[in-house]
Design brief:
The chain is mainly β and 171 residues long. It has 1 helix and 8 strands, in the order αββββββββ.
């Protein structure tokens, strides 16, 4: 519960820092690299690097609530559709493909670690703010993975779903 409070305070701090100070805010020129927070599966740090106006590499590192443990993922993203374009934000949809590494202790009295390697297919919405160097996003990813554990927990073809939301500040 304490980690949720910490994430909420960090999101609020990012928002306050990035909020324009004048009443006549203008569009800002963003950098290509965004760093911020993601909440969900995983909860941790999020990064995005734009390669062009419509392509990017995105990733996250953090704690996974389901199963506990360390979750890392990286995706190549396309932003093929602009759903709406308003004065304060642009909302593109994105799709992509990437990979996930998930390491956790299997529990149930076991002291062995379990490693999952997976292929992610991700989709989501991006709220790309025009008056501040920030964006907010929501995403859902389906994952087909290989689990390294023995017994009935290991093997190929296991399916998982991740979902998250976050904010990033661009430099």
């Amino acid at each position: 519960m304490a980690s949720v409070k910490v994430v909420a305070v960090l999101i609020l701090a990012c928002w306050l820092i990035a909020t324009p100070r004048s009443a006549s805010a203008e569009a800002v020129e963003k950098g290509n690299l965004g760093l911020g927070l993601i909440v969900g599966e995983p909860t941790g740090v999020s990064a995005k690097l734009y390669l062009s106006d419509t392509t990017a590499v995105s990733g996250a590192a953090g704690f996974a609530f389901v199963g506990g443990g360390l979750h890392l993922h990286a995706d190549y993203l396309l932003h093929p559709w602009i759903l709406t374009k308003e004065k304060k934000f642009v909302m593109p949809a994105f799709v992509g493909i990437g990979g996930r590494l998930f390491s956790h202790n299997r529990g149930r009295g076991s002291d062995s670690d379990d490693l999952h390697l997976g292929l992610r297919v991700v989709g989501g919405l991006l709220f790309d703010f025009t008056e501040v160097s920030m964006d907010a996003f929501i995403e859902v990813a389906g994952i087909i993975e290989h689990r390294t554990a023995g017994d009935d927990h290991g093997g190929f073809g296991k399916f998982s779903i991740n979902a998250g939301a976050g904010v990033r500040y661009y430099f």
